[in-house]
Design goal:
homodimer, 190 residues, mainly alpha, two-stranded antiparallel sheet, DNA-binding
Chain lengths: 190, 190
DNA sequence: ATCCCCATGTAATTTGTTACATGATTGA
DNA sequence: TCAATCATGTAACAAATTACATGGGGAT
């Protein structure tokens, strides 16, 4: 009623960056590493999203920026969340109808396994198992190093990633025969 | 080597529509229903993507279009895959390094559970459980009605959806205490 | 009366990806 | 010598979402 219309979005790259900064000041480069590690199983973002997001947050006064000169490299810009940033984040976190979207070329491809060459079906399956194994290595690293220091939320989310990927790997191994058995893939051409 | 550079994409809305048409001719409206049912757990597409995709496929000669006049409603356009369309699809299906992306506002939000009001954390969790329950209802419907007629690929993919969502639901129920216990959510404000 | 289903499509907007641009330091 | 890490940012592009535009028929 007279307020700004925020439409949908909310938990976008900007807001996630803001949330990451609640654990302490960081640069865009630092945040990218976080997207590649602890957030990798459910939220992707590249430099092309992160840097504009931080600029925009700074423009809104939700983060402050300290430029640290360096020799040879560009100035390191370290962002810190402000009190207004905290308020904005808490407001975003009040939205409870959150979505959970999957976009899987992997599953979309396998829907048409009967049109594929058997060796390609195998390759698709193997490729996915390797991705899962890579994630599981990452998880083991966290468990040895740092997970004990995380907030409960981070631990819950990582546990979810572990559980889901483990289920996927097991399912693939136990059901691959459905796609690679003799009855499958008759129609595939060269 | 002189061929067209196809870059990344491949298993996009266009190609998935093409794949769906291998089971028989259909309209954009029909395909939308398929995106909302059997594909809903791993690939979303709205009319704004589907209709342009079909137009584009028709322009490339990968599908043919029969316009069926109707009274009151717009002409029903029924698309059918062509031989060139089959070739294109088989080529797309040779790409084995498929991705599987998750974009979860749900998990991104819970990472910051310690900044949320306890009742909002509960609401987020409940909302997700309801979405999962809705999907599981859908699965039961398929299992009673039609899944037996599907190709092995479709059955494999549906089974994966079942397994993953079941794991998520169980994980939430067994670990929600991590987020809602007394030790959690001290810093949350009104 | 009202809502949902049928049925298509365009335009504007949002959002994110990829490629480009630069370049020193460190370890294998 | 080569690759990786550190470090930032813009511009062009691709893709999808949302809102808009239209409207009859059938069920509650």
């Amino acid at each position: 009623m007279g307020g700004v219309c925020r439409r949908v979005c909310i938990m976008d790259v900007k807001t996630v960056c803001l949330g990451m900064l609640t654990d302490g000041p960081a640069s865009g480069y630092d945040l990218k590493k976080e997207f590649e590690s602890s957030f990798s199983h459910f939220f992707a973002a590249g430099y092309g999203s992160i840097y504009p997001a931080l600029s925009s947050l700074a423009g809104q006064g939700l983060v402050s920026c300290e430029e640290i000169p360096q020799d040879g490299k560009p100035d390191r810009k370290v962002y810190a969340i402000t009190e207004e940033g905290f308020e904005f984040l808490r407001a975003a976190l009040r939205k409870t109808d959150t979505c959970h979207k999957v976009r899987s070329e992997f599953l979309a491809t396998l829907c048409f396994a009967h049109l594929m060459r058997p060796e390609d079906v195998e390759a698709v399956l193997e490729h996915r198992l390797q991705d899962i194994a890579a994630f599981q290595d990452l998880v083991r690293h966290f468990e040895c190093e740092c997970v004990a220091d995380w907030h409960a939320g981070g631990q819950f989310v990582l546990g979810m990633g572990k559980a889901v990927t483990e289920t996927m790997a097991t399912y693939i191994k136990e059901n691959r025969h459905m796609l690679t058995g003799q009855s499958a893939a008759k129609a595939a051409a060269g």
